[in-house]
Amino acid sequence: xxxxxxxxxxxxxxxxxxxxxxxxxxxxxxxxxxxxxxxxxxxxxxxxxxxxxxxxxxxxxxxxxxxxxxxxxxxxxxxxxxxxxxxxxxxxxxxxxxxxxxxxxxxxxxxxxxxxxxxxxxxxxxxxxxxxxxxxxxxxxxxxxxxxxxxxxxxxxxxxxxxxxxxxxxxxxxxxxxxxxxxxxxxxxxxxxxxxxxxxxxxxxxxxxxxxxxxxxxxxxxxxxxxxxxxxxxxxxxxxxxxxxxxxxxxxxxxxxxxxx
Length: 261
Ligand code: GLN
Known about the structure:
Bound molecules: glutamine
Helix content: 25-40%
Strand order of the largest sheet: 2-1-3-4-14-13
Distance between the termini: 33 Å
Number of helices: 8
Structural class: alpha/beta
């Protein structure tokens, strides 16, 4: 079996360490004998490339880089991304990436940047004097098919731990939140929502990187991608997650949230 991992604009959108999500997916494939190649989706790629990948990974970026990406993604690439995501290609989009999948992003300085409108959400930076949302974030996966599938996998409700670092605030329209904030800011620090979930796309403010800290999410992405590609349910070979679980234990202990584990 093989999977193609599409990585959005690695040169422009790797400010916050989210490349760890790509490494995690690739490594978990290799450990299981699944071939995983990385396809860089960037300014040089043509639109078709966005549709030939089995999983899409997009990381965070600073406002300037984000603007370059958002401009490059208009037209045929935007259409290809929309078809891929609406068609159910699984993906994990962190921080700056969900902002560009929404309708627009208003940076602290300069003009509003049009997004792709794939997710019904908008993001606004309240200005340079406003507090940045920085720190550990813990959230519970909100009711959704994802929540049910993770519950089946884990035999307990899925709780995510990550690290957020954003100025922009995101407000959801008609799209489900990814999670309910237990600790931290999440989308905007006001309404208790974190991220968004649409078809098989996970949008989140959670860096970490997210997947090595929450390996069950990585496996959900792999399992979903394999099922779509090979048209049958594929049980993933279990892996030793003890190191990740130790890291989670340390994190939850520090945050006084051991009761959630
Ligand atoms: N530019 C965005 C913001 O500050 C995204 C930051 C990020 O990706 N961490 O909100």
